[in-house]
Amino acid sequence: MTGITTAVANGITRTFSWRGRATRSEYWFYVLFCWAVVLGLAFTFSAFESGVAASIGGVSIMLVWFSLFSAMIRRLHDTGRSGAWALIVLLPFIGGFWLFLLMTEPAQPHPNRFGHLAHPVDATADRPSPK
C-alpha cells in the first residue's frame, strides 16, 4: 500500500503524465489531498472580491482538477482500461457511479499494455508456510 506522502508526491510530479499506472491507495490518497486543496482554495479565494484573486483561484482549482484527471487515467490503466473510460462520467444518472466503481477495482496483477504493476503482489502470500 502506498503511503499518503508518496501518493501525493507521485500525483504532483506526474500531473502532466497520462502514462503508467496508479495503485488504488495512491489514487484515493491523492483524491483526498486534491479535495482538501480545492476546498482550501475555494474558501480562501471566495473571501476576495477582486476579479484578479477570483481568476487566480479559478486557475489554481483547474490545475488541481487536471492533476486529478491524469491520476484517474493512470488508475484506469492500472485496471487494464484505456483512459477513454473516464468519459463514462458523461452518461446521465449512472456515469459517475460507474466510474467510482471502476476506480475501486483491484489492479491487474501482471504487467499490462500500460506498464508494470507498481507494487507486485506476492503470489505465495496466501499459502501456509511449509512445516
Report on the structure:
Helices cover about 55% and strands about 0% of the residues. The chain is mainly alpha-helical.
SSE run: HHHH
Overall strand count:
0
End-to-end CA span:
29 Å
Number of helices: 4
| Radius of gyration (Å) | 18 Å
Structural class by secondary-structure content: mainly alpha
Q: Considering DSSP H and I runs of 4 or more, what fraction of the residues is helical?
A: 40-55%
What characteristic shape results from the CA principal axes?
globular
- Give the biggest beta sheet: none
Give the percentage of residues in beta strands: under 5%
User: What is the number of independent domains?
Assistant: 1
Spans with pLDDT under 50 lasting ≥5 residues?
A: 122-127
Mean pLDDT across residues: 84
